[in-house]
Amino acid sequence: MATDVQVPALGESITEGTLAQWLKKPGEAVAADEPIASLETDKVSVEVPSPVAGVLTEQLVQEGDTVAVGAAIARIDQGATVGAPALAAEPAVETNPAGPAETPLPREDEHAPVADGDDNVTTLSPAVRRAVLEYHVDPSKIRGSGKDGRLTKDDVIAAAQGKAQPSAPAQAGAQTEAKASPTPPAPTPAPATKAPARAGERREERVKMSRLRQTIAKRLKDAQNTAAMLTTFNDVDMTAVIDARARYKDLFEKKHGIRLGFMAFFVKACALAAKDVPSVNASLEGDEIVYHDYLDVSVAVSAPKGLVVPVVRDAQAMSFAEIEQTIAAYGKKAKEGTLTVDEMTGGTFTISNGGVFGSLLSTPIINPPQSAVLGMHRIEERPVVKDGQIVARPMMYLALSYDHRIIDGREAVTFLVRVKEAIEDPTRLLIDL
């Protein structure tokens, strides 16, 4: 009995996604609740599990296709035997008595199966099918260099240019010639690989924007078009924080099982500053300003598919260890692509640390509907004047971008000064000053 695998609910207000990758191939056995495909939504990647145990007999969509919630993307046969997928039979080819038969090439509208050297079966993409028809090569004799041995357009072109795949008549002629001559036959050519770029050759590659990247681009542009965005700057002496970390890092890690980082200091400093300047932690909804008595910090994290901003909730009530543990857990999930929609929605303020990539200074963009974002940057020793003496100190530039519609310049500067004071004298964080 065949069972359709449908796109599950993807979160509030999300009605469709992009099929990013098939995790199972036709003909492979799947267990109940085992992921068979990965979907990419506007915010996260979601794995689609099989509702039943059986054999994946048919993929109804291709990688890169947009699918709606509830749409069928595959079929699982609970009674099928593991083996080759259920595919439409190719038309029979009559044998030519005058010579060997040729394997027909797939038509433009067919998803032709291709077997590689490991007897894996994949499906040709439209671009590969066009290349096969254009260059007149036998796809079954080309080893794919793509993911899971998939055949790529470059593989087809390389095979055609290198003439690594002789036609069937040529092979037959070579065999006849070998019988008539004592000369041993030439060795079988190696599987075709991607042709190396010639000196001076100019190449281009077009890659469709991922759904996540499209959403990031739209949201950031909307923020620029909507908010009256302005950025104010300050610098902060990191000496006290660096000394505190050096003094307590071993005890902290031994007790809490997590390293003490800079982010916890800045989260606590922003929570303290937000008490004095609540508008920085507010949001604009229509003609109303919504003030929050809590601080849900969106922490910008770099993931393989783009920037994501999981939320550290109720940061004002968390300890240093709880903040570091939460951020570390989010960082791991971001790399694995397992962050949920709930974990990335509802933030009231954002902190972005471009310093980990070497950024000296930047003007971060607000994450709507929030009204402000703090940008951290790299630490480097710079000459500063202390007590009338020029000394070298580890300095960091801070940037606060804010929505001037609800935050005045005085409030933005005051907030940034409060953060600076708390970082330069961490004791303020303990006595709430």
Indicate the CATH class of the largest domain. Alpha Beta
Poorly predicted regions are 84-122, 164-186
Number of strands: 20
Q: Bin the helical content.
A: 25-40%
- Cα(first) to Cα(last) distance is 68 Å
Reported CATH architecture of the largest domain: 2-Layer Sandwich
* Strand numbers in spatial order across the main sheet: 11-20-19-18-14-17
The CATH homology group name of the largest domain? Chloramphenicol acetyltransferase-like domain
Alpha-beta classification:
alpha+beta
Q: What kind of sheet is the major sheet? A: 6 strands, mixed
CATH topology of the largest domain: Chloramphenicol Acetyltransferase
> What's the rounded overall pLDDT mean?
79
Strand proportion: 15-25%
**Anisotropy-based shape:** elongated
Radius of gyration: 30 Å
Describe the structure in your own words:
The protein is an alpha+beta fold. It has three domains: 2-77, RNA polymerase II/Efflux pump adaptor protein, barrel-sandwich hybrid domain (OB fold (Dihydrolipoamide Acetyltransferase, E2P), Beta Barrel), CATH 2.40.50; 113-168; 211-431, Chloramphenicol acetyltransferase-like domain (Chloramphenicol Acetyltransferase). The chain contains nine helices and 20 strands. The strands form six sheets. The protein has a six-stranded mixed sheet with strand order 11-20-19-18-14-17. A hairpin with a 2-residue loop joins β12 and β13 (288-290). The longest helix is centred in the middle third of the chain and has 18 residues, at 239-256. It is elongated and about 80 Å long. Residues 84-122 and 164-186 have low confidence and may be disordered.
